[in-house]
Q: What sequence folds into this?
């Protein structure tokens, strides 16, 4: 389904007066308004193909209806999101769920929707029909070189699919680990992983990046072979300049100070990509900003600080992606909410008076430092984010438009009630 521009205009006309009132009130106090609006307009967050359908839990899956049944429909869904919020201009694909059988056609469709291809993801955490060896005991870290080779070959295949579409990065997330003490030799598991990644790295095109994701737990519960940012950074440093750490917000032990991790990775120029989501307990994959919005703001505060220090472009310097899985809400609405929360946190962090913060830090003025951060965080920037969207032709309130126009019902009419998306 392609969203008609008239529908957006009609929606905006209805909300325009109220929006203008809010925006005028908010912007009168902002010194660098044009700069912030420009940054907000440029900022794009890639949508994961696997979040377009209803996610499951360990106990079951309650499918929605009108889910995208193939890659074309997944692209159309992201096109819809992008038409509404003008900030979802990229998709992150997962192979083998999203194999492009006709890459040129897929590229053309994506181009017509204004969608680019972000990092491609490999999958060596599930067995596929007809594969020779099982990943039950791991993939790149496996004790059997034949299993490692199969997993390496899969990653090379993923790179090739990515090349055919214009992707510029490969994300490797491994489920490799152990659930019981003694099950693994940690050192050998790490070295096998490094050797496998080295082979993959060898096949990476010159202008590509390799994102090494880490995760502290799950599906294994005693050890994960790439368990934290230290292990990921160790690998990235050993691999070379094209390898980076990817931070997924849900992949830390409880109460980890993620903003500090982000700050140090940026200092080392080794932060490559980001997976946004939120969580209360573990890798809950909930809507970004739904549980800990202050943490999201503090992370953006460090991101901006570190990126500005190195002269990195906010929009293109890192791979910005959502990694979420919704099992209750309409996935498209949930993604709109996530993108909105991310942009709100980004806008608030852009408001921080960095010079004053630096001065407060240098003079150990703790109260002032706290006031500066909280002053930005407590600013209601929604009208700012909406204004940026409006200037790009998006909707003032994407969620409201989606609901009022019954977009899901239109998708169901088009695709049927029983379609189930491939993915997690
Ligand atoms: C799972 C993992 C990880 C990964 C994603 C896609 O926990 O976050 O990025 O699957 O492979 O959510
Ligand atoms: Mn992730
Ligand atoms: Mn995850």
A:
């Amino acid at each position: 389904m392609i969203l008609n521009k008239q529908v957006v205009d009609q929606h905006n006309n209805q909300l325009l007066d109220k929006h203008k009132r809010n925006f005028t009130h908010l912007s009168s106090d902002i010194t660098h308004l044009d700069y912030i609006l420009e940054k907000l307009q440029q900022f794009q967050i890639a949508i994961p193909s696997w979040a377009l359908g209803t996610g499951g839990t360990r106990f079951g899956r309650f499918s929605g209806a009108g889910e995208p049944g193939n890659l074309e429909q997944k692209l159309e869904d992201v096109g819809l999101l992008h038409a509404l919020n003008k900030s979802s201009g990229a998709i992150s694909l997962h192979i083998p769920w999203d194999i492009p059988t006709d890459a040129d056609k897929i590229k053309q469709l994506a181009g017509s929707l204004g969608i680019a291809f972000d990092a491609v993801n490999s999958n060596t955490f599930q067995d596929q029909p007809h594969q020779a060896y099982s990943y039950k005991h791991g993939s790149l870290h496996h004790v059997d070189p034949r299993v490692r080779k199969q997993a390496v070959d899969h990653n090379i295949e993923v790179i090739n699919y990515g090349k055919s579409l214009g992707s510029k990065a490969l994300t490797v997330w491994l489920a490799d680990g152990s659930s019981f003490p003694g099950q693994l030799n940690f050192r050998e598991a790490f070295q096998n992983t490094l050797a496998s990644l080295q082979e993959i790295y060898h096949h990476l095109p010159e202008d590509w990046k390799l994102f090494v994701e880490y995760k502290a737990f799950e599906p294994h519960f005693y050890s994960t072979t790439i368990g934290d940012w230290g292990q990921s950074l160790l690998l990235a440093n050993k691999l070379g300049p094209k390898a980076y750490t990817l931070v997924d917000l849900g992949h830390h032990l409880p109460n980890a100070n993620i903003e500090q991790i982000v700050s140090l990775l940026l200092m080392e120029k080794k932060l490559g990509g980001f997976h946004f989501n939120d969580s209360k307990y573990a890798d809950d994959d909930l809507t970004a900003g739904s549980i800990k919005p202050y943490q999201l703001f503090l992370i953006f505060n460090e991101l901006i600080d570190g990126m500005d220090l190195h002269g990195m472009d906010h929009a293109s310097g890192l791979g910005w992606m959502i990694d979420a899985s919704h099992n209750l809400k309409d996935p498209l609405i949930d993604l709109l909410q996530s993108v909105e929360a991310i942009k709100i946190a980004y806008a608030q962090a852009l408001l921080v008076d960095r010079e004053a913060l630096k001065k407060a830090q240098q003079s150990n003025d703790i109260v002032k430092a706290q006031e500066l951060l909280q002053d930005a965080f407590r600013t209601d920037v929604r009208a700012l984010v909406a204004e940026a969207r409006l200037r790009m032709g998006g909707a003032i309130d994407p969620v409201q438009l989606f609901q009022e126009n019954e977009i899901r019902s239109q998708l169901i009419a088009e695709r049927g009630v029983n379609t189930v998306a491939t993915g997690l």
